[in-house]
Amino acid sequence: MFGLAPLSTVVWLPIFAGIVVLLTGSDRNAAMARWVALIGAIAGFVVALPLWTEFDRTVPGMQFEEFRPWIETFNINYHFGIDGISLLLILLNCFTTVLVVIAGWTVIRERVSQYMAAFLILSGMMNGVFSSLDAALFYVFFEATLIPMFIIIGVWGGPNRVYAALKFFLYTFLGSLLTLVALIYLYNASGGSFSLLDYYAMPIPLAAQILVFLAFFAAFAVKVPMWPVHTWLPDAHVEAPTGGSVVLAAIMLKLGAYGFIRLSLPIVPDASQYLAPLVIALSLIAVVYIGLVALVQADMKKLIAYSSISHMGFVTLGIFIFNPHGLQGAVVQMVSHGFVSGALFLCVGVLYDRMHSRMIADYGGVVNRMPVFATFFMLFAMANAGLPGTSGFVGEFLVIMGTMSVNFWYTLAAATTLIFGAAYTLWMYKRVVFGEVTNDKVSALSDVNGREILILGLLALTVLAIGIYPKPLTDVLGVSITGLLEHVAVSKL
Amino acid sequence: MEFSMMDLAPALAEIFLLAAVCIILVADLFISDQHRHLTYWATQITLVMTALIAAGGAGSEPVYAFSGLFVGDAFSSILKVGVCLSVAAGLVYSRAYLGPRGMYRGEYFVLALFATLGMLVMVSANHFLTLYLGLELLSLSLYAMVALARDSARSTEAAMKYFVLGALASGMLLYGMSMIYGATASLEIGDVIAAVQSGQSNTTILKFGLVFVVAGIGFKLGAVPFHMWVPDVYHGAPTAVTLLIGTAPKLAAFAFVARLLVEALGAEELVVEWRQMLVLLSVASLILGNVVAIAQTNLKRMLAYSTISHMGFLLLGVLSGTAQGYGAAMFYVSAYVIMALGAFGMILLMSRDGYEAEELEDLKGLNQRHPWYAFIMLVMMFSMAGVPPTVGFWAKLSVLQAVVSIGYVWLAVLAVLMSLIGAFYYLRVVKLMYFDEAPQREPIEAGMDSRMLLSVNGIAVLALGVVPGALLATCERAITLSLRIAS
Fold this sequence. Notes:
The structure holds 2 protein chains of 2 kinds. Chain A is mainly alpha-helical. Chain A has helices at 6-23, 30-54, 84-103, 112-131, 135-144, 146-156, 161-189, 196-201, 206-223, 232-239, 242-267, 269-274, 276-295, 300-320, 324-355, 366-369, 371-385, 391-404, 408-433, 440-443, 450-468, 471-489, and strands at 63-71, 76-82.
């Protein structure tokens, strides 16, 4: 586009747009900040579209590669390139950014330019994570995303925001610091290279592989988050503003899973296989136990947060069973969860903006006052429960299918999510939406406005489209996933 | 001892500076208080000119002068430029601060220039005595500057502590040097290297001397367990002086380490010895600096403990004993000086007549009062915490790389765990600025010069975080080109 390299444009355009938004200054220019942010977000999505159309679905390996020396002392290069997995996540990210900007349109009244800029910059950085083929570059983007999210939670969050923001930052920072040490170790072991592609080809002894795996695991498991290092997520979600929750659930959690796919599996395949039972066990605990925890939540945002952890358990399960169905299911689940959980947080946001409460007990009979909203909410609740015909079903089904070919008992445990997921989501839905109007506040509710219909409608279409016809997704993934699995199958000892 | 005009070339910057200080010293006597800015500007011009002269020597082969007392090389040129510029920047930040506190006087500038001269001499020393001479010139000027706020009991106490502990450290250093002299029969660094390598010197005495030299270095850097003076002096000294102590002298101290440990005592068998000592100093500094900083409510004191932990990181680079590690340490110290300038500059900028903005609470709600300053401080804090995309991240990366390359992975893990603890108190500053409500809403007034400089400083930290390559390469080149590294 305009003679620029496509991936650089996708990464830097939102960041520059964010800086421009910052320059609009104080809240006197709030309207301008909003419009500039919207234009920036839409432009960010538009420049990502050529990636989808021009992506060659038959070629394994990286596409749209860009290579420029960056820091020669350490042989660090500005090296971008994507495969099908990155492509989907980049599109998801750019799409979500547009929604988040619209969602914050009237809700955010203070420091509007900083709010919008934080999301745009964050979006560019996450595109950077998904595009990097150089470990140092990857790490820079991976870490840098913490700064805007820390600010978003801390400035525009709820009453306990300081605690949540600090917990979020320190938890994730710990993991990534250990990863940094592992990357430096790999740099020395490879004779001075930070290129991920060099790491893929490099033999590493098992003991070292296990340590490197554990260091990566510290970063990515916290990010996913996996049981038992998930405790930051409910806090962060509950306190974050709606937009923050959406981005956190839709994209940021995927950074962890993406890290497993891009770093752990191909760089230390033997350790990954060796420790797979551990990861699978933790994933199953997340699916079952966290599913049960979600059931008893009184706070809607907390419930969705726990449901996110449970669903992400499916993703890690799918990744670590090492077969095409599992991995494909994991990636589809990542994308679908991005849309569904984002949509659910937006739904809670819609209610919260009107009632200023997230407690399930404060609601009841919402359908009598907000029928349109109730319909959308229903769809997303069903998608979260994994109803066939919605995107939630495709990923879970593929993962369960993949697991079946590995171990029956894994499958049995994983499949309980179909019950628990339905139970906690639909029970929440019932208590909030159905029944008689319980109090005056609910009876004063007004239905969704045009702006909200636009966001929820776009999401609803996507969720249904993926659910009914997921083939475009699996087509993009196909070659990348078989390539990855072939690579993982070869021992690097 | 023969003298030739050629000897003057490497010392041109120092000679110019000395002449200029003498002129300023005398001329200032005839300047009335209203025209004191003439002294200020003369000082600034002197510093910039000295930096320019020093820059002329960058990239050259080492030139030894005055019978080996003095050396001019790329390493010293780069550090001299850094020293002069950071002192100049420090004076820009301090200008408005000094006036209302009765320190905007000729003595202040003359002492600052003498301290600078001391640092330049240290950086270029090729002889233990030259090294010591420079160190004492620096230290004595700084002692006096700390005590310059005569009416403040806290400053006087800080100056006294600084002086007593500094004198003790100098004593240790001298004792160590005399041991090395006993073992090698020379004080000239080149001769010491040769004597150690010949294997003729008494290794027991050499190692004995080494211990005292390391202790002296520990004092000067402020590494645990020789750190006691750092918090009190940083806290007690007038902020403008704290800024001066916390920035340029770190560069000189690094040169000091480079000349003594890397060059003079850099033989393989001695590196093994001092590596163990530096590991201890570094681990203790990392732990104590980061943990104790959490408990601080005073920003200057917090930054003092943060300095201690940063010195721990700096030592990580040095203890690797590789050229690459020394380069990393040099990069680290340069990055640190830029960050410290910004952080202390911010404190100076926010203080007004009779009001010191040195408590953490004073930063509350800065984002509402002045978003741009808050952003710069945010960049400084994230840089000190080592979060990309700031220069602090690359500094940490390069020293960690140095320790991992010699197989000390555990040390790297410990260092990153400590920097996690460190992140907490840096984040607390960000929290105060961004998440809390401002108790007062009055705008921050500051001169155009310090506002501009602060902006440049903040952008530099970010810019060096995005393109650190040139500075990294410069540091590594300066080390390999100039220092006589054994292995």
